[in-house]
Amino acid sequence: MAxxxxxxxxxxxxxxxxxxxxxxxxTEHSLAFRDxxxxxxxxxxxxxxxxxxxxxxxxxxxxxxxxxxxxxxVGKVCEMLGLTPGxxxxxxxxxxxNGVQDVPHLHVHILAGRRLGRMxxxxx
Length: 124
Ligand code: 5GP
Prior knowledge:
Layout: H1 10-15, E1 23-26, E2 30-34, E3 42-48, H2 55-61, H3 64-80, E4 89-92, E5 108-112
Antiparallel strand pairs: 1-2, 2-3, 3-5, 4-5
This protein binds guanosine-5'-monophosphate.
The site of guanosine-5'-monophosphate has 13 residues, from strand 2.
């Protein structure tokens, strides 16, 4: 399936500087910033600067330099938040309709600072 990128999504606007953000880390190919509606004491989103919709889109088409930069950025944010080693955290990449992805620009959520409960609620 093709990954059509909508350049009007909110994270594209953040990357263009059209919307402010609370930056935690900026690297050549990646940006990490605090989620506007945090679900844990630490809730940081890490996005690539390139136009990628999902993790698999990024993983299959991004350059090696982008992938290394992004992976290292996630690690660096964990370090900056004191999570390595620490009490742990959760890394989430909601993807597509079934994954309930609201913003169609790849982002991983780093959630930490409280016990997060089971990964998924029981099926109802
Ligand atoms: P998704 O459901 O796509 O995995 O998560 C999107 C996340 O983006 C949500 O946690 C939401 O709170 C966050 N978000 C949406 N709009 C903004 C915004 O304008 N700024 C920031 N910092 N986060 C946003």
